[in-house]
Amino acid sequence: MPPVFQKYASMAVPRYTSYPTAPHFDAGIGARGYAGWLESLNPAEPVSLYLHVPFCRKLCWYCGCNMKLASRYEPVADYVETLIRELQLVADHLPGRVGLSHLHFGGGTPTALEPDDLERVMDAVRTHFTVNDGAELAIESDPRTLTGEMTRRIGALGFTRASFGIQEFDSKVQKAINRIQPAEMVADAVNGLRQAGITGINFDLIYGLPHQTVDTLRATIAACAVLKPDRLALFGYAHVPWMAKKQRLIDEAALPGAQERIDQAKAATDLIQAAGYQAIGLDHFALPDDALAIAARNGTLKRNFQGYTTDTAQTLLGVGATSIGRTPSGYVQNIAETGAWARSVDAGILPIAKGHAFQGEDIMRGHVIEELMCRGGIDLDATLRRYNAAPGSFDAEFADLAEMERDGMVTLDGHVLRLTEAGKPLVRTVAAVFDTYLATRNARHSVAV
Q: Which H or E run contains 184?
């Protein structure tokens, strides 16, 4: 790594799964505004659906997600009822029956539901939407609590992809983050899903965890390679105890330092690629014949709140507490507190807490950021022409880009911007140059590497 790598790697920047990012949403967009956006959709265009289940049956200390510990099932059962009612509420505002190109159950742990309740939610989805041929149906799971009956039901319901949070297989690291799951447990879960007909398997790995080293990551990646998931994601642990209070249970003294994080990220990336996986954007990897790898090669790769995706739908409907959605008009986010979310749904009101209506250069700058994140470069002049923007719209960015070019992070051929090999792991920092909202609010983000 060049000497300046540390300079950029330690910068705190967003992950850019949207533009503007969620800290810049506000209460100006509410239920009425979102209803109008839904009503104006083209019913001939497919949409994506994200369903959020904020319950887990076990607590992981590293997790920064909005989740609740399901010590009793009654609150989960109540949540299911409200989720089904929200699906009806959203469908009532659509201009007609629309097709689904992608569906993703996230959390939390969606498989914390009882199998019958998962089936009831999927029945509601099929009641209100047409699941298009070839649609990807994905669900997140936890191998520690995944039962044989749930595995069989996931297969019977037509799911095509399942995701596991592996994070790290080293027992000392697992104990430090309160997630004990031996490789044998994960192998049993993967084999069960494949036997049930789920052909797509995703693993999530994390570097920067307490007591983690390059050697523990090497052993973890070797164990993952034996199981041959179709896709791997590699994320840097974001220690944000001011937001995720459970992270206060982690011993900060055991966390790797900045240089150790850089070494771990580099080593893990090299090891995953050596195991036969193609690098996808910033932090994803896929086997060469996987749809995500093909999309990366043919230039159709996209990015949304689930990360890198093959989904090209312009509308993502978020259902469930704290879920985020996107329409061609802007973003919305549901109420996070499950009680308030349920009361809104029960009153027949779309449970929107905040959002953002696209304005000014938002869509153009979002395009620039997505191109950098997905394809590692962009022709800025062509972008200005595409969006009929003023010729000097990016002039303010060129001072920062020129410094990055001197530091070996990017190249500039006229106004064609490209990330170098050294700059690719720092794409979030390069993307931040085009973020006109970043300095307008005191939002805290994780470091770039």
A: helix 183-195
- Contact between 51 and 320 under an 8 Å Cβ cutoff? The reply is yes
Q: How far apart are CA 354 and CA 332, in angstroms?
A: 6
Confidence class of residue 440 from pLDDT cuts 50, 70 and 90?
Answer: confident
Flag whether pLDDT at 24 surpasses 80: yes
Cα–Cα distance for residue pair 180/174, rounded to 1 Å: 5
Q: Where are the beta strands (DSSP E) in 2-98?
A: 47-53, 55-56, 68-69
DSSP one-letter string for 366-404: HHHHHHHHHHSEEEHHHHHHHTT--TTTTGGGHHHHHHH
pLDDT tens, 137-172?
999 999 999 999 999 999 999 999 999 999 999 999
Residue 285 host element (H or E): strand 284-286
The SS3 of residue 362 is: helix
Q: What is the CA radius of gyration of the chain?
A: 21
* Burial class of residue 233 (count of CB atoms within 10 Å of its CB; 0-12, 13-18, 19+): buried
Buried/exposed 155-164: b ≥16 CB within 10 Å, e otherwise: bebebbbbbb
pLDDT tens digits, one per residue of 242-300: 888 899 999 999 999 988 998 999 999 999 999 999 999 999 999 999 999 999 999 99
